[in-house]
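queue> pop job 88
queue> type: inverse folding (structure -> sequence)
queue> payload:
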């Protein structure tokens, strides 16, 4: 049953269904039902992120922060996290608050940091 479920997820992902692309990226990231492969996780996260999926955008940001599957790039991480935060994804809002506080991938702006953290508390 699980193998069939994975095949269905892969088929839907290849048909450009963003939630399945996100799911396939998560499977590759964790090594569940497939060999763990950060580069493949990034491929699928990017497809879903490009389609506007907020969780995929944040997942892609995480990959850039940690340099897994892609070179470490704080500016790219901030770009994807900001897109996710703009959709109200709480983890991304809090992450952007920290990024503005520390100047990670963005210019340090303490006022903007507070706005992002407060937004995360309102929506979360």
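queue> result:
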């Amino acid at each position: 049953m699980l193998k069939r479920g994975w095949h269905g997820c892969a088929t839907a992902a290849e048909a450009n269904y963003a939630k399945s692309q996100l799911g396939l990226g998560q499977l590759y990231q964790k090594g569940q039902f497939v060999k763990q492969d950060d580069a493949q996780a990034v491929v699928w996260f990017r497809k879903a992120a490009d389609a506007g999926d907020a969780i995929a955008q944040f997942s892609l940001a995480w990959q850039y922060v940690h340099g897994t599957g892609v070179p470490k790039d704080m500016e790219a991480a901030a770009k994807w996290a900001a897109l996710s935060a703009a959709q109200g994804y709480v983890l991304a809002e809090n992450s952007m608050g920290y990024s503005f506080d520390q100047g990670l991938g963005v210019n340090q702006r303490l006022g903007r940091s507070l706005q992002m953290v407060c937004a995360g508390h309102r929506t979360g």
